[in-house]
Amino acid sequence: MSQSVLSLKNVTIYQEEKTILTEVNLEVKHGEFLYIIGKTGSGKSSLMKTLYADLPLTDGEGHIVDFDLATLKEDDIPFLRRKIGIVFQDFKLLPDRTVNDNMLFVLKATGWTNNVEMQNKIDEVLTKVGMRDFGKKMPHQLSGGEQQRVAIARALLNDPELILADEPTGNLDPQTSAEVLEVLKKINANGKTIIMATHDYALLMKFPSKTLKCEDSKIFEVIQQRTA
Ligand SMILES: Nc1ncnc2c1ncn2[C@@H]1O[C@H](COP(=O)(O)OP(=O)(O)OP(=O)(O)O)[C@@H](O)[C@H]1O
């Protein structure tokens, strides 16, 4: 399949009055795995926030999973977020409830009501990330890598077309980062489109894929070179 999941045309991204990225032209096709790299402060998170409508698109054109970012209304944002799975650096699991209840919370908030269907879905996504036996655990009983795998499972609950992962390995050691990347790569191999912001260049070398770099307010494709 080659239809576009995301298209940005001549977009400028601002934080308050400051221009962060300009002349952003980007097209991501169904099934791609795309890295966004760049130094701290170069605008990776601002770009991701624009994609999940945390920052409004005020300048340029943007379409993502059938939503028009330039004309998106406040009321549309929850519906956009159901078609996008978001994974953050700090996992953002609810600390006061089990893994299973974290999942139930999201399903109920997004309109699911049937208990059997909800539990089947939870089991399905936890199995996908290798966490099937951890449903009764509290987040604090899990390692960072396990928490991030649960967060990835949570992002899969509503079968999104696109996963946006903003520094998903930023809090993890190299070995655990590689394991989380393997989970994301497997999900991508099963057909999900993934955009991942990172400054972990070692990971990029280990799992090469199409890469865009944010630098000097611009974003452009870079060709990865193997050093060994
Ligand atoms: N909420 C905000 N209000 C004002 N300025 C912001 C805000 N968030 C980020 N910025 C500024 O926007 C610029 C880009 O930040 P952004 O977080 O997008 O960079 P980044 O590449 O994701 O960095 P990092 O790798 O450190 O997360 C920085 O100069 C930052 O100070």
UniProtKB/TrEMBL annotation:
Any one Pfam family match given in the protein's UniProt record, by short name: ABC_tran
InterPro entries: AAA+_ATPase, ABC_transporter-like_ATP-bd, ABC_transporter-like_CS, ABC_transpr_LolD-like, MacB-like_ATP-bd, P-loop_NTPase
PROSITE patterns: ABC_TRANSPORTER_1, ABC_TRANSPORTER_2
A single GO cellular-component term on record: plasma membrane
Entry's Gene Ontology BP terms: cell division
GO molecular function, one term: ATP hydrolysis activity
Every ABC transporter domain range: 6-226
Annotated keywords: ATP-binding, Cell cycle, Cell division, Nucleotide-binding, Transport
SMART domains: AAA
Family: Belongs to the ABC transporter superfamily.
Function: Part of the ABC transporter FtsEX involved in cellular division. Important for assembly or stability of the septal ring.
UniProt-recorded name of the protein: Cell division ATP-binding protein FtsE
The species this protein was found in: Flavobacterium xueshanense
